[in-house]
Design goal:
The chain has 103 residues and is mainly alpha-helical. Helix content is 50%, strand content 4%. The longest helix has 15 residues.
Length: 103
């Protein structure tokens, strides 16, 4: 997967609010912390979603593009804002990969 494909897949993974979380990379149905790539994960933070779709390989470039999109630490942004803002962060990062930087 290239960087854009990773970002698109991660955004899709957390596109529904019930599949997004804060404070942990991934959670199970009971809200407990689990591995993002584990079989019990049902919701992910931004970074956990990147890990999940990249099959455990560190998506350093995708992470850097997200960080560029919000100009702060991705985990801090994910945990300090709402679901819509997180999706908008992914949208900006995807646009950047497509050569059309927004904002």
């Amino acid at each position: 997967m290239n960087t854009r494909e990773i970002l698109v897949a991660a955004r899709e993974l957390i596109s529904e609010p019930e599949r997004w979380t804060q404070g942990e990379h991934a959670r199970d149905l009971n809200g407990r912390r689990v591995s993002p790539g584990g079989p019990n994960a049902v919701c992910w933070c931004s970074l956990g979603a990147l890990e999940k779709v990249a099959d455990g390989s560190p998506p350093h470039v995708a992470h850097a593009v997200l960080q560029y999109a919000v100009r702060t630490r991705v985990s801090q942004f994910n945990d300090g804002t709402d679901h819509a803002a997180v999706l908008a962060m992914f949208d900006r990062a995807i646009a950047y990969c497509e050569g059309g930087e927004n904002g």
